[in-house]
UniProtKB/TrEMBL annotation:
Identification of the protein by name: Sugar ABC transporter permease
Record's keyword terms, sorted: Cell membrane, Membrane, Transmembrane, Transmembrane helix, Transport
The keyword Cell cycle is assigned to this record: no
SUPFAM superfamilies on file: MetI-like
Membrane topology: Multi-pass membrane protein
Pfam (any one): BPD_transp_1
Entry-linked CDD domains: TM_PBP2
One GO BP annotation of this record: transmembrane transport
Family of the protein in this entry: Belongs to the binding-protein-dependent transport system permease family.
Ranges for domain ABC transmembrane type-1: 76-266
Keyword tRNA processing (UniProt): no
Chain ranges passing through the membrane: 16-34, 80-102, 111-133, 139-160, 187-212, 245-267
Amino acid sequence: MAAKSTARAERRPGPLVYTAMALLVLASLFPLYWTFVVASNDNSVIGQSTPPLVPGGHLFDNFSRVFDSVEFWIAMKNSLIISTTTAVSNVVLSTMAGFAFAKLRFRGRNLLLGTVVATVMVPTQLGIVPLYMMITKMGLFASVSAVILPSLVSAFGVFWMRQAIDENIPDELVEAARVDGCRLIGVWWHVVLPGVRSTASVLAMFVFMTAWNDFFWPLIVLPPGTGGTVQTVLSQLAAGYFTDYSLIMSGAFLGVLPLLVLFVAFARQIVSGVMAGAVKG
């Protein structure tokens, strides 16, 4: 018992580790804090030789100026619709495809999986022109559907969920469900999804953040007058001859709030999903 206690004490992190972790956390949070400081101060204060380090009292005034300058409510609604839809569709379709690649045996499975993975190496910019032509011919230009449709599923999500299902769902469990008369869709719903719930939560978070922060494609298919997304309207705040940093940072702070709320709401699932498979044995 004494030897075990000594070994545990030796594995316990020391003050240097905690100091390094605290510095890392502070360095990670400082950009967000600085955004809040600039957003809550007047632009004249920000232009002083000594920049402010504490929040000011103009936060809500700057928020009001953001909503008066651009259609921020419409952009927020569009971004929420796009991000939520793509996150849900990626979880559903990626887990379905991952289940098929991991547990079903069919001809050409490895070749098809290799083709899906190979598409990850193709730069997104190469497909912009043909994708634009397809969206235009389908009559979806200047609509939210034009942003959602190309992002309904991703090769990364399919491969990641395939690996998660292969590691966490035993073949015996799938076979037992099939013997009990459960159809494939039932196996996916009752066996696969509960078994990879944490990993699916992380995938949903990643997809939501990617869709929320996407700028290039929404800028192309959502012209001015359609409301745009949060990222496109933020670019409009910085498009004037005079750079109003307090206005820009106020919009940026409003744009990051939904991501913070989402992370806090699903922090436990996200952490468990990231740590899944990290400690085994």
